[in-house]
């Protein structure tokens, strides 16, 4: 009997230790991401005109940093409830940020379609509503654990109803998967249309290059993360510590942060290039080949893929020729 008790104790300690290792690894990843991109943030966010994506990018970066840092704060009997409430707040903010990002991206790439952008936003907000209700109704109790010391335990209202909990899990993750699938399909349709247009102009731009630049890899990663979270919630429903949830909870915000940094960097370089071309041809900065950034910025733009510099140059030259021809026609009119 004592042997079985010892084995159970060792297994419990192993699970707790593994969870702590994962927490430290995720926090380290978030801190590392913030540090290596802090220069880009200052240059492309705080030193450029304020747009909705810029504000969203700044909030995403610092929200994931604070949310990850809270995972390392030791719990006490007095800080149990406030600490858990703060964790819930940042978690809900992350759901809202993901919904805004997906909706703005669809709105920008799909001819400012309110139907698709609102549909994506509504689907992405389903987990926000479910988690908000759970956060409001949950209770928090601190107790002394012989292995970890003071531990804060959340009494989930659905814990006694496994079926209801699984249904809500499927609804929440299923809505996110559907939203990501819509964004991905609309992105592919837009990319295919652009690629066919370049083929009609006899431009040699590969479909792979287009897929690398339209954010397909990011949205596939977001879709895969939500599928992994759904599978993890399903198979770990009876486990005390879901070991994958920490990773799948923080990675979407990290991916969105990196995606928007890439977009802002591309937009910054394009703006500088267009200004330089305008100065060289007109002797002043009043004429630009690209329209000025509005409140949405360049959230519907393309990314830097890092492998196809020649193709990117060809596309930029073609865009310049097209815009120059358009300006000449308008001048003659």
Automatic annotation (TrEMBL):
The keyword Transmembrane applies. Residues 307-318 have a biased composition (Acidic residues). Keywords: Membrane, Transmembrane, Transmembrane helix. Residues 21-65 form the DUF6533 domain. It holds the Pfam family DUF6533. The chain crosses the membrane at residues 21-38, 50-73, 85-107, 114-136, 170-189, 210-231, 237-256. It comes from the Eukaryota. Residues 304-324 are annotated as: Disordered. This is DUF6533 domain-containing protein. It comes from Phanerochaete carnosa (strain HHB-10118-sp). The lineage of its organism: Eukaryota, Fungi, Dikarya, Basidiomycota, Agaricomycotina.
């Amino acid at each position: 009997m004592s042997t079985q008790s010892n084995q159970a104790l060792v297994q419990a300690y192993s699970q707790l230790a593994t969870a702590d290792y994962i927490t430290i690894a995720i926090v380290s990843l978030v801190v590392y991401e913030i540090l290596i991109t802090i220069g880009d943030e200052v240059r492309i966010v705080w030193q450029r005109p304020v747009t909705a994506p810029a504000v969203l990018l700044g909030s995403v970066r610092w929200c994931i940093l604070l949310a990850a840092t809270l995972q390392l704060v030791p719990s006490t009997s007095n800080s149990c409830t406030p600490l858990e409430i703060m964790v819930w707040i940042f978690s809900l903010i992350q759901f809202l940020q993901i919904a805004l990002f997906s909706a703005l991206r669809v709105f920008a790439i799909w001819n400012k379609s309110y139907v698709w952008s609102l549909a994506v936003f509504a689907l992405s907000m389903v987990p926000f509503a479910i988690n908000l209700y759970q956060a409001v109704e949950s209770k928090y109790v601190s107790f002394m654990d012989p292995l970890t010391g003071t531990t804060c335990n959340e009494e989930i209202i659905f814990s006694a109803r496994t079926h209801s909990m699984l249904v809500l899990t499927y609804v929440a993750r299923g809505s996110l998967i559907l939203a990501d699938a819509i964004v991905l399909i609309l992105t592919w349709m837009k990319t295919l249309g652009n690629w066919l247009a370049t083929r009609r102009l006899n431009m040699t731009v590969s479909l792979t290059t287009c897929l690398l630049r339209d954010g397909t890899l990011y949205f596939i990663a977001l879709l895969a993360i939500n599928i992994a979270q759904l599978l993890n919630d399903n198979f770990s429903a009876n486990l005390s510590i879901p070991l994958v949830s920490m990773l799948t909870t923080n990675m979407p915000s990290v991916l969105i942060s990196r995606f928007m940094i890439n977009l802002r960097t591309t937009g910054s370089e394009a703006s500088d290039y267009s200004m330089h071309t305008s100065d060289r041809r007109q002797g002043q900065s009043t004429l630009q080949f690209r329209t000025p950034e509005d409140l949405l910025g360049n959230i519907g733009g393309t990314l830097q893929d890092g492998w196809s510099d020649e193709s990117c140059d060809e596309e930029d030259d073609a865009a310049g020729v097209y815009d120059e021809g358009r300006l000449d026609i308008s001048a003659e009119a």
